[in-house]
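Design request, tokens follow.
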């Protein structure tokens, strides 16, 4: 579980701690933890009341941990992360139903843990009609469930799933540019979860694939127009390969362009090819043997984000995930030496 926002919650709640017991008593009685509607959040009284509700919910999570439920437990982590994103958006004056809906998910999990419900649910609803973004990250997190490594990775898995919903909610409100920081958080949590899952069990001979997407500015294909936040994803994969002493079998690159057409029908085909070549040159500069890198290009045939109804600069920025080179590192882990 990440407590990056919990410190903020705790600091803001200190001023309202005296009001918390009454809300805690209501929650213990099974009543809904309900925030004031956004239009009513204009008085100190309303803000203090809502803060006390958040504090009471935080106290219930702490009580579960005090009672022996580990911090890294999947459901405790998920309850905390739902609470974190709820308060984060509440403090940013989110006018939608998201703060309440996320808080409701936290409370549902807390209720189940307090009552000893088994099995606890593992689904992650797209609250407030959040957009379903990054199917690849959802799939990677799903694959960790039920594996031996889930024991070590469950905290990161839980928060990665919540951050994907958070990102989808922000996309609905202000499109991809605003959801990007939360997508980055989900990417980081997914990468961390996979690393923890692998390290959780004794290494065995196996092949695996590490993935990254390198993104490009509109109508550009050079190294200086690769988006740095996406380049860090490829660098992170290379760092993990080095740290875990994995052997690179080969690297597969697939170049893509967005759906905006160039001067002729073949323009996007050539643009996607040049992007794949640029990514290849970058990996060679990082020490990967050229004959281990294979690339292809697919023009604008495989779009991952439509951005319907948008125009101009907003459209070009929204289409950024389509201007990508998919990077797949096929790696091999050596078998442990015999005793």
């Amino acid at each position: 579980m990440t407590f990056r926002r919990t410190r903020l919650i705790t600091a803001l709640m200190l001023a309202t701690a005296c009001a918390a017991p009454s809300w805690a008593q209501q929650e213990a009685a099974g009543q809904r933890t309900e925030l004031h509607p956004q239009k009513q959040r204009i008085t100190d009284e309303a803000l203090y009341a809502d803060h006390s509700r958040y504090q009471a919910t935080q106290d219930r999570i702490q009580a579960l941990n005090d009672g022996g439920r580990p911090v890294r437990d999947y459901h405790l982590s998920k309850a905390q992360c739902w609470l974190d994103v709820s308060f984060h958006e509440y403090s940013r004056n989110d006018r939608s139903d998201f703060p309440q809906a996320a808080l409701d998910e936290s409370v549902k999990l807390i209720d189940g843990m307090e009552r000893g419900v088994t099995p606890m649910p593992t689904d992650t609803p797209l609250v407030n009609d959040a957009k379903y973004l990054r199917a690849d990250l959802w799939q990677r997190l799903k694959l960790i469930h039920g594996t031996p490594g889930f024991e070590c990775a469950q905290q990161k898995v839980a928060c990665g799933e919540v951050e994907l919903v958070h990102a989808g909610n922000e996309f609905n409100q202000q499109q991809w540019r605003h959801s990007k920081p939360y997508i980055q958080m989900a990417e980081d949590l997914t990468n961390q979860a996979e690393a923890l899952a692998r390290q959780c069990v004794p290494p065995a001979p196996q092949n695996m694939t590490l993935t990254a997407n390198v993104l490009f500015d509109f109508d550009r294909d050079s190294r200086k127009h690769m988006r740095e936040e996406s380049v860090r994803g490829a660098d992170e994969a290379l760092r993990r390969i080095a740290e875990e002493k994995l052997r690179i079998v080969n690297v597969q690159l697939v170049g893509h362009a967005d759906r905006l057409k160039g001067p002729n029908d073949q323009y996007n085909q050539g643009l996607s090819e040049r992007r794949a070549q640029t990514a290849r040159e970058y990996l060679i500069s990082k020490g990967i043997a050229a004959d281990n890198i294979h690339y292809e290009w697919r023009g604008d045939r495989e779009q991952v984000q439509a951005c319907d109804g948008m125009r101009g600069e907003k459209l070009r920025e929204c289409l950024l995930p389509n201007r990508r080179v998919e990077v797949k590192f096929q790696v091999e882990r050596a078998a442990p030496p015999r005793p």
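Comment from the thread starter after seeing the answer: thanks! The beta strands are 206-215, 247-255, 293-297, 324-333.
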